[in-house]
Amino acid sequence: MNRDNNPSTIVAARRTILRAAGGATLSAGAVALLAGCQGMGSATAMRSDPPKDTAILNVALGLEHEAIAAYQLGAESKLLRGPVLQVAVLFQSHHKEHRDTLAGAITKMGGTPAQAKPMREYAAALNAASLKSAGDVLQLAAKLEKGAANAYLGVIPSFSNDDLRKVAGRLAADETMHWTVLAQAIRETLPQKAFTFGA
Predict the structure, then answer these.
(1) What pTM does this model have?
(2) CA distance 88 to 192
(3) Which residues contact 30 (CB under 8 A, 6 or more apart)?
(4) pLDDT band for position 47 (50/70/90)?
């Protein structure tokens, strides 16, 4: 793996992100879905199991808190500059939208959203002290994004509510898009076989 902050690779990654319009609009659609629009009526809500679903959503919310913290640590490390930093900030903004969507859904369903931990705890858990280059930061981000994509795909069958399954699928798509761009930026070899995610 090449850890160099290759400008041409990063510019290409940024162009890929900016063309991926779906990522920026996910949470608006998800908020509408979870707020009672686009088919999540009272009949659907009555068939759901709110305590089970809110527990799953809180685990997902924990992943979003971690991703936000990871990108914050990357930005504050001063290792990311120019287009690379812009991409990290963009991805962090997606995760903030995901966080707000999940927290809103949990509250709407009568639960209490999980709170973010202190930044020092995330720094220790993510071994932020080991980040010595832009490549290190991007590699960590790629690992977290892939893990989140797999987590969202893994919980889809566990939701009792069909609309929450759809939202989890859309969140997984966002995380997969993030991972793909980051993998290209660090020149990680793309999977040679199908069914890479969700296994």
Answers:
(1) 0.76
(2) 26
(3) 101, 167, 170, 171
(4) low
pLDDT over 60 at 10, yes or no: no
User: Could you tell me the two tokens for 171?
Assistant: 């969140």
DSSP per-residue string spanning the chain = ---S--HHHHHHHHHHHHH-HHHHHHHHHHHHHHTT-TT--HHHHHHS-HHHHHHHHHHHHHHHHHHHHHHHHHHHTT---HHHHHHHHHHHHHHHHHHHHHHHHHHHTT--PPPPPPHHHHHHHTTGGG--SHHHHHHHHHHHHHHHHHHHHHHGGG-SSHHHHHHHHHHHHHHHHHHHHHHHHTTPPPPSSS--S--
Domains of the chain plus CATH, in order, are 25-185 (1.20.1260.10)
Q: What is the pLDDT of residues 80-109, one digit of tens each?
A: 999 999 999 999 999 999 999 999 999 999
Q: Which of 76, 94, 90, 84 is nearest to 28 (CA)?
A: 94
Question: In this structure, which amino acid lies at residue 21?
Answer: A
Exposed, middle or buried: residue 164 (CB in 10 Å: 0-12, 13-18, 19+)?
buried
Select the more confidently predicted residue: 10 or 179.
179
